[in-house]
Specification:
Layout lengths: L5 E7 L7 H14 L4 E7 L1 H4 L9 H15 L6 E5 L5 H10 L4 H5 L2 H12 L10 H4 L1 H11 L12 H18 L40 H9 L17 H4 L5 H13 L2 H13 L4 H23 L6 H30 L9
Parallel strand pairs: 1-2, 2-3
The protein binds tryptophanyl-5'AMP.
Length: 353
């Protein structure tokens, strides 16, 4: 008897282009997992993109570009089911059902929501958008994304860990309230999940903070961004013989730490170790480090940029691709929504049969 395959699911908002945080926090795991005996669902979260926009933005075009970047990174349509969230509108129905059992207090304690709340209180214009019902309910929609395909594993960066925990809480509550194992509960996010700092030395690389290194940045842009990373000629001592990035990088000044983190991700290990040695020795080497890191990042980006611009991935190709993938994910999603309707007592939808 063959065991049931693991189900993997993850999503990314179409907020412009993919950056290194997205890649090393999430996409590189998507690529690794598509080689596993698993069913992989990856989607572009275009509904979620609506929670932060102030006016009309061409989310459709951004979604298509994001899909093209996914493919350029190596996501293989033959091995993963890659779809657009809004092509699965029953996700919104599941979010509505889950919203009925989710406490507002639980949502208000979410760190992403709290951060936005504080930012808006300090400067009501900072986000260009008031606090919305959609923003408060963001984790409920995310729970629907995860639970609708009965995911076992949700590969995400560290910043999304709490949202996945909230999805597990919501599913447990649903199951205990409605007396059945209707919803499948995924595993918690691994403690080793990455949080890549921003090029400005801040805690997190993120599109809205304008501190990203992007996969589609060309050589000149990469070098310019590297040069702008704040470094200090007065480095803090490492106080350890370890060379493990997770041990030494937190001891470095913020901007310097970003450079070493990137180096540990894109350069050969001996290059990383050599720069750790130079750090311990002191001296002026940040100019060379930035130049050399810029070269590694440019080489990393080159094949992605080439594939992104490949004319075979035209808009029509991507639209057809999305249509086919939406068809592949719809049956499993409808099965979950119908089970929830039944468990809650409104019964199955007549028109879906
Ligand atoms: P989003 O679009 O902000 O980010 C997409 C993925 O990239 C990861 N990431 C990072 N990882 C490490 N360091 C960083 N600086 C960094 N910045 C971004 C994120 O952790 C994420 O894995 N809410 C989600 C999208 C979403 C989703 C879902 C994810 C909607 N529904 C269901 C998983 C399951 C988001 O905004 O990700």
């Amino acid at each position: 008897m063959s065991a049931k395959q693991e189900v993997i699911l993850s999503g990314i908002r179409p907020t412009g282009r993919l950056h290194y945080g997205n890649y090393f926090g999430a996409v590189q795991h998507f690529l690794r997992l598509q080689d596993a005996p698993a069913t992989c669902y990856y989607f572009i979260a275009d509904y979620h993109a609506l929670t932060t926009i102030a006016g009309r933005r061409d989310i459709r075009a951004q979604t298509i570009d994001m899909l093209r970047t996914y493919i350029a990174c190596g996501l293989d349509p033959a091995r993963s089911i890659v779809y657009r969230q809004s092509d699965l509108p029953c996700t919104a129905e599941l979010a509505l059902l889950l919203g009925m059992i989710t406490n507002i207090g639980h949502l208000e304690r979410g760190t992403t929501y709290k951060d936005k709340f504080i930012k808006l209180k300090e400067d009501p214009k900072s986000e260009g958008n008031p606090l919305s019902y959609g923003l408060l309910g963001y984790p409920v929609l995310m729970a629907a994304d995860i639970l609708i395909v009965k995911a076992d594993l949700v590969p995400v960066g560290d910043d999304q860990r709490q949202h996945v925990e909230m999805a597990c809480d919501i599913a447990e509550k649903f199951n205990s309230r409605f007396g059945a194992e209707v919803l499948h509960i995924p595993r918690a996010v691994d403690r080793s999940a990455l949080r890549l700092p921003g090029l400005d030395g801040s805690q997190k690389m993120g599109k809205s903070d304008n501190n990203t290194l992007d996969l589609l940045d060309d050589a000149a842009t990469v070098l310019k961004k590297m040069k702008g990373v704040p470094t200090t000629t007065d480095p803090a001592p490492l106080d350890t013989d370890s060379t493990d990035p997770d041990v030494v990088i937190p001891k470095m000044p913020a901007g310097v730490g970003v450079l070493y983190r990137l180096l540990s991700l894109v350069a050969p290990q001996e290059v990383y170790l050599d720069y750790i040695r130079q750090y311990r020795d002191g001296g002026k080497f940040y100019g060379t480090l930035k130049k050399s890191l810029a070269e590694y990042c440019t080489a990393f980006n080159a094949p992605i940029i080439e594939k992104f611009n490949d004319p075979q991935y035209s808009d029509d190709f991507i639209e057809d691709f999305l249509r086919e993938n939406a068809k592949r994910v719809t049956p499993v999603a409808l099965d979950t929504v119908e089970s929830c309707r039944e468990a809650m007592g409104i019964g199955r939808s007549l028109y879906r049969g």
